[in-house]
Design a protein that fits this description.
15% of the residues lie in helices and 43% in strands. The protein is mostly beta strands. The longest helix is centred in the N-terminal third of the chain and has 8 residues, at 6-13.
Length: 108
């Protein structure tokens, strides 16, 4: 939802028993950019993001397929057995650590 009446929206969200969130940085509420909206839409109506596939270059990963296709970032941790990794990248206009489903298919 995109709104200029954030206080009213937050009051209404508190009435919903399911998990709801307002995105922000610290105490500051941050609007989503067009790139952020495009990323969220990649999950489709069910918001299920498919496993990411990519290759490693040193300690960095380039995602070639999946919800994060096109993203490049430093890998903080890779668990090949459980197929996930923790990647440091820029998302929502800030640098974050992101835990993603990940299949590494090559190292260059």
């Amino acid at each position: 939802m995109n709104t200029n009446q954030i206080e009213e929206v937050m009051c209404q969200l508190k009435k919903i028993p399911e998990l709801t969130k307002v995105l922000g940085v610290g105490q500051e509420i941050v609007p989503l950019s067009e790139e952020d909206n495009h990323f969220i839409a990649r999950g489709g109506a069910d918001h299920i993001y498919r496993i990411n596939k990519g290759f490693m270059r040193g300690e960095y990963v380039q995602i070639e397929e999946g919800a994060f296709a096109g993203y490049y970032g430093k890998m903080e941790k890779v668990d090949r057995h459980n197929r996930y990794g923790i990647m440091r990248t820029n998302l929502f206009e800030r640098e974050i650590e992101l835990e993603i489903g990940l299949l590494i298919y090559d190292r260059v």
